[in-house]
User: Which sequence fits this backbone?
């Protein structure tokens, strides 16, 4: 199963609201009202069209609060200058009141959508920031390569282990940069031939550091999606070099102890046979 990759995602920044944004929205609404006033065809057929377009743009570019400012300004100015009797906030006919209510309803829907979108965007930004914090500062290695084999993810733990900075390795061939030459064909074949379910199980292969030393890494690999929709293979690993050395030393010690016990048992058997031979004589 391929999952999206939050910490590589691109999320549009939440609009920064300032008094300038509100002022620009008011000026734009004033321009829309003035244009409609001076073009009788617009005033007769689509009284609120330009104002509605300005509200939509204001809500998208400046956030829902700026959209509210634009909507309020549009309602007030349209009622005063475009809806008879001019200069009054109360429409003269039921048809004008209906059009005004429909405009209010449409802008209200747009503003609710803009607010929900802005909240979702902010939530996505916070989630992405949390993912980045965990991935960049976690104790485990997190590295990834795209479908062309180029490095696209490299966290701080990887930097500390290898001695490479992120800027040095991003975009470079992953296998050629980190995998020892003797292991490259095996690693390439594994990722080419094995299903991702097998790659998600723990497996070992070494990394070579910038200082040309090897560290043995236990990896679990997963497929995720980049912002462009292409597959990325991400590995989560830990350095098990010292653990493997300790296990090797333990196995060596146990083997030596076993050999010593076997040699001692053989010596005892030979001693017993020698004693028995002397007793027989």
Assistant:
């Amino acid at each position: 199963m391929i999952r999206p990759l939050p910490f590589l995602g691109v999320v549009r920044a939440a609009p920064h609201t300032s008094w300038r944004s509100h002022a620009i929205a008011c000026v734009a609404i004033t321009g829309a009202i003035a244009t409609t006033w001076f073009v009788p065809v617009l005033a007769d057929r689509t009284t609120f069209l330009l104002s509605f377009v300005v509200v939509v743009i204001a809500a998208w570019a400046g956030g829902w609060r700026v959209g509210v400012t634009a909507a309020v300004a549009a309602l007030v100015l349209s009622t005063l200058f475009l809806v008879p009797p001019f200069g009054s906030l109360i429409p003269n006919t039921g048809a004008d009141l209906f059009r005004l209510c429909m405009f209010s309803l449409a802008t209200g829907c747009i503003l609710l959508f803009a607010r929900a979108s802005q909240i979702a965007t902010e939530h996505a930004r916070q989630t992405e920031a949390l993912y980045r914090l965990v991935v960049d500062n976690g104790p485990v290695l997190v590295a990834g390569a795209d479908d062309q084999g180029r490095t696209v993810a490299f966290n701080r733990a990887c930097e500390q282990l290898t001695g490479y900075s992120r800027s040095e390795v991003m975009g470079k061939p992953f296998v050629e940069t980190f995998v020892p030459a003797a292991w490259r064909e095996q690693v390439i074949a594994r990722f080419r031939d094995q299903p991702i379910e097998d790659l998600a199980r723990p497996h070992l292969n070494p990394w070579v550091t910038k200082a040309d030393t090897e560290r043995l890494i236990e990896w679990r690999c997963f497929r995720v999606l980049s912002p462009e929709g292409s597959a990325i293979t991400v590995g989560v690993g830990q350095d098990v070099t010292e653990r493997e050395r300790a296990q090797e030393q333990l196995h060596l010690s146990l083997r030596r102890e076993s050999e010593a016990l076997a040699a001692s048992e053989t010596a005892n058997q030979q001693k017993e046979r020698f004693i028995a031979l002397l007793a027989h004589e």
DSSP finds eleven helices and six strands in the chain. The chain has a mean pLDDT of 84. The longest helix spans residues 94-137. The beta strands are 3-4, 141-146, 151-154, 203-208, 214-225, 231-239.
